[in-house]
Every structure is written in structure tokens, then in C-alpha cells.
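Record format v2
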Amino acid sequence: MADLTAAAPLTTADGRPLKEALARAQRRAKTRAFLLVAPLLLFVIVSFVIPIAQMLHRSVYHDGFSANAPAVSAWFAANPPGTPPDEAAFAALAEDFRAMKAAKTAGEAGTRVNYTLPESRSLFTKTARDADRLAPPYRDAFLAVDPKWADPEVWQAMRSSSSAYTSDFYLSATDFRHTADGGIERVEPRQRIYVYLYIKTFVLSGVITLLCLILAFPVAHLLATLPMAKANLLMILVLLPFWTSLLVRTTSWMVLLQGQGVVNETLLSLGLITDSGRLRLINNQTGTIIVMTHVLLPFMILPLYSVMRVIPPSYVRAARSLGASSWTAFRRVYLPLTLPGIGAGALLVFILAVGYYITPALVGGADGQLFSNMIQFHMSKSNWSLAAALSAMLLAGVLLLYWLYDRLIGIDNLKLG
Amino acid sequence: MAEVSGRDAFVEFEHVQKSYDGISLVVKDLNLTMPKGEFLTMLGPSGSGKTTCLMMLAGFETATHGEIRLAGRPINQVPPHRRGIGMVFQNYALFPHMTVGENLAFPLEVRGIGKDEREVKIRRALDMVQMGGFVSRRPAQLSGGQQQRIALARALVFDPELVLMDEPLGALDKQLREHMQFEIKALHERLGVTVVYVTHDQGEALTMSDRVAVFNDGVIQQLDRPDELYERPKNSFVAQFIGENNKLSGTIEKLEGSRALVRLSTGEVIDATPVNVRETGQKTLVSIRPERVEFKPEMMPKDAHTIEAEVRELIYMGDILRARLKVAGSEDFVMKMRNTLNQTRLQPGQRIKVGWHPADARALDPV
């Protein structure tokens, strides 16, 4: 048989190759299947793939300066970095400023330079107002408007803004900046906020994931072993947070956790804390952890439950009958079998936690803010490119984690429900 | 088999009762004594309490009342992992995240047995079930029959003296099931372990067991050797449950020693052996095995009563011929004939007279 198939490709009765005949026979079904998923595919492309691509593009692209100041941009392109600005450079700049005044775009260009060197925008708007009075010799004319035009840092900032594609936003997002001579250095320790916040976000998300796992495991086990009617009732309680408005939930957490709140009053009346030693449970990092654990708990319970429900009780019984104590049976047999659920739940909760911003914004206070809050802050300030760069970092972190998970546990072991 | 005395009893149930809801009893006053090395099957329909009994013995259910003893020691309070009982589960319950070797090593590891000794035992257990080459496979890569063998090897690898089997062959196809029955039986004889086997398949119970306990409604209806059970059922339930049976209902006309005359509701008189009837005039259900029904006068005792029958249907089954007869108003009276060279071939519609040896008709309690 094997020799036969190796010698000649199989054909159908009328002599056509079998593969071709099979493809023909399946074409209709395949076309149908594709048409059925086409609307979703289109939706995903329009609402997910394109926006993400656009976001990634924005994080490296900003033409606010290069489009509005083409002449000086051309001068930057013609001269290597570190060249001190000569009269030609100032002449090009003056030409650009006259054009910008006419088009009222000096603010836009200034905004772009401002991202690289703070307080540059006002320099641009101020100079644009006086653009008509700029006359040769241009260098002196500019210095007459503002002596800052002699500052090499201003020119370095304009140079890095002069090409539409730039790594400036990623530098800012990782607490670096350009130096006057074209190099890179870390910003002053006081201004290093993003990397710290990035690490903190991942650590806090890890803590929240761990807390969710510890709380969810027994609940999911109970759900999986209870009779159906009771399990359904309990499931409603688990899902209740989903059906409650986020604001209502947050408000009730405030009632519970604040200084004069239920938790503190109870502890006080039990004599466990003193009046001056009231616990600070909200508007700080603790608040963020408590409330986010609560919000994300169902995302841990559901995958765990779906995995535990299909583990036959006979596995643990078998382990027990073979001589394992209940702890050994749990550790060696039950726990490994729930790993797909633990993995799915942990990945889900962690990824949601890393990108969460409403809860930390409401109950996080000053030190309970996460990375997403920073993205939101820059978006509200219309610094889309920096927000995009920060988002891309977050995305990269999550993808890295996903890759690690795939390497360690295997993505096909993931069971979401 | 002689009654097992308390001295050499290995497994004992004494007045064991079990209730799950506090309203009804699943097991009602169970008394059972097993000697060492016996193969005992608990047979019964689902919900008869047989699996509950097995689970109580394994330690996964607690007896509501009564005492269970293993080798003379009460084990009611002993947790399952200290009982040292091997168990084979219905769906094998092989740990899917471990290889065959790891599955077999598990009971040895938790007992703190060293690596070298473990490997010897694992090899021996796998060879015992002819699965020596499968150490590094995962259960999912094995067929049902192979998984069954591994489950068996795992239950035996730590040399337990008692092995429980909960419908272990239920998921296999017929041919494999029959093959495994012989293998399990052979293993039992070779190793001399005591086996408690639960099944609802009466054929399995009859072929494998030393003794069978027929359960119904939480009570052991009869505990006997397979041949006794088949040939001398003590009540109608056992007669109906084990093998095929013809039933004829009537009243006792005459009762003398080991013979009874029964008048059927349609007026005919037949011979029977009284089992659990005591007086004339009592209602009874007479049970006769299809293969013990005769239609040739020379095969019956001289004074046997015969009864009119009409052939309704003939089914050719290869080794036997099966005739469905109309007897005493009932349409489903079955007679089985051996398919021999010169067997008389009956025709549908043919009128014959059937009879039997009085010992083969048992007058039981009416249902």
C-alpha cells in the first residue's frame, strides 16, 4: 500500500488528482464559512487592528514642526548634528515664521518642540507675533525678539522635531532625553516617573492577581462541587458585581473603607485600633488593591470554575485510595489539573489590571495611580504621541507576558470557559 | 460454600445502614462477611446501593450506622488513604497530567518507597498486565482497554490485600470486555488478592465471581455462588435479574415435600419446586429458564405435566434457536433449543406441548 501511494499520486475515478478534487469539493463550504465570519473580521479590522496600527504610528510620528517649518527642516537635513546655526539657518527660520504667522500654525510647531523642550511653545508664539519685523541680519533680529534663540538646546529640540519620524516620545516615556550635542541621557531623578510607574503597575497587578487567585480558588471549587441549584445561586452572587454600576460599587467601597467608614469603626469598637491609629484604606495604594481585587475577582472565578467543573471527583478519590493524604491529593493531582484555569484567570486578571484606569483614578489617591492614568493624563492634554508611546509600552509588556506564558504553560492549555 | 465464620473473615459489614438525606435508607441493614482471597461481586440495578457499599468500604462515604471491619479492625473512622485498599474506577481515573510510569509511581511515592524499589515494582506491575512498553505514554494516548490495564496495574502496584473495582469494564466494547474479564479473573487467581467487584452486568458477575451478592432496594437479595444463583434463585427479583426467565403466575394447588402443583390463572396445572411458598391457596410466580423448557415428550420425566403452546416466532441465533410461544395466555414465553444437526425445526403457528423437570420450575413469591 505504502509503495503504491509513494509511486503515483492518488487520483479519483475519472483521473483527476485527489487533492484537486478534494479542494473543489470543499470550496463551497469554505467560501460559506468565510462569508459567515467576514462581518466580524471586518469589524475587528476597522475597530481594532487599524486603531492599534494608528496608535503605534502616532507614537513615532509627529509632523507639527516639520510640516510647518519646511525651510529650517531642510537646513537641519543638510547640516550634520552639532553644527552651530549660521545666518542661513536663521534666514530659513525667518521664512518659516512668516509663513506660520500667515497660516496661524506657529502654536502647532511650538507644541511639537515643546514636547522635547518644555516652555518652547511660548517662544514660538511670541516670535511669530513679531515675524513681520524680522529682517537681515536674521541672527540679531531673532536675538532681539528673544535671547533664547541663541540657546543650543532650543536648536537641538528643533532638530529632533524637524523630521516627522522620531523616537523622542519613546525617550520621554522611558525617562530619557536628548542632550544639546545630540546624545541621550536620563532625565533628572526628580522627573523620572514613567519607568517607576511602569514597574509599579506590573507589581501591583501581580499582587492583585495573586489576591484574586487566593480568594477565587475556594469559591470556584465550592461552585464546582455544589449541587446545581445552589451553585447557580452562588454564581449570581459572583456575577453581581458585573451588574452593578462601577460608580455604585466604588461609592460603597468608599463608605466601607474611609477613615470614618464601616471597617475602621468596627475595628475601633472591637478595640483593635485606636482612634488616632485609624487605617488608611482608601485614596492610596491599599484602596486601589482592595477595590481592583473585588472588581476583577469574577474574571478569576469563571475560568477556574469552568475547569474545575469538568474534573471528575474520581481523580482525587483515586489519589486518596492510592494512599495520598488529602493535601497530597490536592497538591499532586487536583492543583495540576486546575492549571489551565489558573493560567487563564491569572492572565485575564493581570492584563485587565495592567490596563485599568477608572478604579485607580477614583480610589487610588496620589500613590495608587497606575500607568494607564498617565496615558489618560497625556490624552487629556492632547499629547497624543506621548500617550501612544506609553500605550505601546504597556502593550509590549502585556505581549511579553503572553509570550512568557506561552513558553512556560502553553497557550493551548488556556481555558477561558 | 460454607458460611464464613468470624475468625477467618477479612471484610465484614455488620448492620450497616446508609442514608444520604436522613429520610430514606440507601443501604438497609447490610451484613456481609468475606474470607481472604475471595472474588465477590456486588450485582444490582442502578440505585440498589451496591456502589454506596463499595464507597463505604473505600472510605469515601461514611456509614450512617453499623460497623465495617477489615482484617478484624474497624475502619469506619480510618481515612481512605490509610486503608491500603486498591481501587479501580469506572472511568479509570488515570491522572491525565502524568505518564503511565508516574501514575504507577504515585502510590509508591506517597508511601515513601525508594526510587530503585519503585522501578522494580512498576516494571513488575506493567508486565503483569502486558503493558511493559508504555511507561512514558500519557493516558490520553492509550486506548480504552490499555487504560483499563494501567488502572488495574496502578491499583495493584502497591500490593494491597483488598482491591475494589467499580464497574471497571463498563466503558469497553463487548469483545474487549469479555477478554478483560478473563484477565482480571486470572490475575485474581495468580495474586490471591481479595476483590470486591461492582457491576450491573449479570454475565460479568457470573463468569468472574466466587460469590455474587444481588442487591436490590438497599438489601442483599441473595448471596451465593454463581451456579446457585442462576439455578436456584431464592426470590422473583433474583430470578428476573439473573438471566432470562419465563414467569407464570398462579396459585398453589397441592404442596407435598419438594413438589408443588400450581394452577395457572388460565386453568392449566404445572409442576414446580416450592421455594418461598408455604401453603396451598397461596399466590405464586413460577419461574422457568428458557433452556430448560422441553417440547419432546422423551426429554421430560414420565409423570410431568405438559401445557399447550403455540409457536409465534422463531429466531435463528446461530448456536441456539429461540422460539417465542403463546403459553397460558401469555405471548412472551421463550424456549431455547440447541442448534444440533437433527434438531426438530418448528414452524410459526405450530401447536406443541411443552413441559419441564419439576426441579427447573421454581415457585417463588408473587411480584
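Chain A is about 70% helix and 0% strand.
Chain A has a mean pLDDT of 88.
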